Amino acid sequence: MDTMPHDDLSLAVPLLVDKDQHRLGCKLRDVETNYSFTSSGSTSSFKTVFHGLNALSGVGILSIPYALSSGGWLSLILLFVISTAAFYTSLLIQRCMDLDSNIRTYPDIGERAFGNKGRILVSVLMYTELYLVSTGFLILEGDNLQNLFPNMGIEVAGFEIGGRQLSVIIVALIILPTVWLDNMSILSYISASGVLASVIILVSIFWTGAFDGIGFKEKGTLVNWHGIPTAVSLYAFCYCAHPVFPTLYTSMKNKHQFSNVMILCFILCSISYASMAVLGYLMFGPNVKSQITLNLPTDKLSSRLTIYTTLVNPITKYALMIMPIVNAAKSWLPVSCKKRPFSIFIGTALVISNVIVALSLPFFGDLMSLVGAFLSMTASIILPSLCYMKISGTYQRFGIRDGGLMDCRFTWCFCRDIGYLHLSLGDNKALLVSRCA
User: Cα–Cα distance between 400 and 375 in angstroms, integer?
Assistant: First the structure.
């Protein structure tokens, strides 16, 4: 299919646009442009595979055994279904970019399909996901630090702070200086260790089960229908890297290899996730916690290696997650306020708000399930499909003659995802009550 000329872009944008909406879209465009790769066609396919694996492999690997425990053995089929769907929508992103050479970021796709409203929606989803994942890092770090030092506590102004609350605060204080950095290149290189960290965690879990006396004796249940929404949400969270794919595609030297890169990335990550899920479920059965590291005995070397790897990796990635939000907030300030002190203030305020949310949402699995049900399903499955249908004109094959009706489909799918979110949250609420009983 031939590339559509840039002039056709105006057909996707209404003639009468709300001024505030247009201004918001322009500000978001400026911020996102600053955070896209400046390189165009300089990255080899091998390096792109590495970047893709780093984007797909993250903290989701720690909660995947809990997802399998929630849904039962048959829910593992849904992991591969979601993986296949996410792989297909990654190719739809490539097709959208081939249709219009001016598309360089994920919000660009939303704007090309649905105008400024599309860009704003995609941007809001991206920033919300970044914020909640950053909050998940604090919960993850706090839980594992408390697991290592369960009796830690201090007294401040007559108030005793201990346990998980103190752990989260300590982690936030350690992370805070990284948010103040202007040059993120050092953290970018360090965070590239995410792939290695996932391998270390997987090998350490296997070693703990095989040689440290835990074994693989649990049988589990075939299917747990009440836990399927939680399982699906956590599975979806594992494949929420789609906002990064346009940047990877733009930076590739041989763009025709993108589909092969995606095949390799999704196959390797799916094998890794499935292996971790099966190992964790066989080791701990229905007693597996939202982070498998919380089940590990802290007196074993392999367990400590897993926990330490889990502690170090999110610390290096936190600032990279939160910095786009900082710059988006700075874009709203007057030019005179865009100096370093204001950047430090915004970063500090975001960390403090993350701490408050992390202390309010005590369970890592619940937060990741929320992100997976609402944000990951929308950003990874629904949005790429709808945007491709709108940009390519495929929606006309389904009997939809008017582009406005496609906008209605867009809204309907979004509302359907909200309904799925409520279903997942209802399941998590029941789980929370049972835990606190």
Answer: 27
Q: Within 10 A of 335 (CB to CB), how many other CB atoms are there?
A: 6
Cα(120)–Cα(117) distance, integer angstroms: 5
Q: State pTM to two decimals.
A: 0.78
**What per-residue confidence (pLDDT) applies to 264?**
96
Residue pair 428/370 in contact (Cβ under 8 Å)? The answer is yes
State the DSSP string of 311-351.
HHHHHHHHHHHHHHHHHHHHTTS-GGG-SHHHHHHHHHHHH
**What mean pLDDT is predicted for residues 194-215?**
88
* Angstrom distance (rounded) from CA 312 to CA 201: 12
Please give the CATH topology (third level) of the domain spanning 39-436.
Amino acid/polyamine transporter I (1.20.1740)
User: CA 114, CA 275: separation in Å to the nearest integer?
Assistant: 40
In the predicted structure, residue 418 carries a pLDDT above the cut 50: no
Cα dihedral 100, 119, 252, 378 sign: negative
Please give the pLDDT value at position 392: 84
What values do phi and psi take at 218, rounded to 5? Answer: -75, 145
Annotated domain spans of the chain: 39-436
Residue 355 structure tokens: 């701490």
Q: Taking each helix axis from N to C terminus, what angle separates 301-330 and 19-34, rounded to the nearest 10 degrees?
A: 130
The pLDDT score that the predictor gives to residue 55 is 83
